[in-house]
Request: fold
Amino acid sequence: MRGQTAPKDVSSSSNPSLLLSLNPATLRRDFPILERLVHGKPLVYLDNGATSQKPRAVINAISGFFENGCANIHRGVHLLSGEATQAYDRARATICQAMGAARPDELVFVRGTTEAINLVSRSWGDLHVRAGDEILLTEMEHHANIVPWQFLARRAGATIRVLPITPEGALDLDKLPSLLTDKTRLFAFTHVSNVLGTVNPATELCRIARERGITTLVDGAQAVPHGPVNVGEIGCDFYVFSGHKMFGPDGIGVLYGRGKLLSSLPPWQGGGDMVERVSFEESTFRPPPDRYEAGTPNISGAIGLGSAFDYHALLNWPELREHEHALAAAAHEALLSIPGVKIQGTVPGKAPVVSFTMDGIHPHDIGTILDSEGVAIRAGNHCAQPLMARLGIQSSARASFACYNTLEEVETLAKAVRKAHRYFG
Ligand code: PMP
Reply:
């Protein structure tokens, strides 16, 4: 029985800081990498929008699988395979419960957000989108929620339409009714912008689309890292996210698809484990989620992601959200006190993502100077070139916070940006 229980046993042995969320210093102890020095300075990790750091519970769950329970799933008659299958299925059940899905088989394990959107654009898109149809996106989408729809539009002869944003960085909802037409088949939008931090009203947007019979896909990549998301309450048809941004491992993510809709779609990749019967003439396919998980999946990744959800469930999210908002507010105030700094995205209640530019300094130079102070941020177009074009910039610097960041780290960020201003300003 060791392998069957190893992932849970090992992960729980490190006892995450139960509800110590008001004290990020204590929460930080669960994340070993935060002890690191960078260029001789304490690491200030503010690149959480790209990927989050991992708590020991998740690290132990993954190494526990490899040390005690490594086997392929679904195929073996031996004990280890049975245990690995149970651990894999248990991870899906954990995520189902945490996300308010109706049944675990509404959740498909994929590589991440990008693969989930490509899956939907193939399986759902090729079945439902025809010449002359329209796909509605928004101006603040990540490339992952643009390019797969362009592929589909090209295959089908459909058109992409775009909901614009306001100068503050909110969706311009006044324009929505005229963009949802008889031809609109899909409204795909991000729950939280990875550049602006804007939190979009996903429940309302899905309701409006549903009333018009339009299918919805919500990109939750930047939403799930900041507390529980309930797909039942949102009322979306599809919800997608990556594990690596929410304390889980990379190479694993989830596609949620509403039960009836998901089971009405064809597979997108063929291979082992997704079929019922195969002959050289034809094949029949298993119901979801197996139908969409051809081949050996990322077993250790799924177990690690289940453990990340277990860890999330221990945290006091209402308090942590307040803490994250305080970090974002402090970062706004400190950065705006520095001459030449402009912040992109000022919608109230935004997620703790702070993108900024400085007059006369390229964002890559800001990033390099900050790195020399131990501060890790991102600089570039953030895979959102259409949004950058709308903002009239080529790139920006982005500090993105997680619940383990502290107000002291905001001060270190501001100090380092002041140093950049002295060098170049
Ligand atoms: N959508 C958004 C809003 C994102 O921030 C990201 C990651 N930067 C993605 C999609 C793509 O996620 P992944 O690379 O994990 O597939």
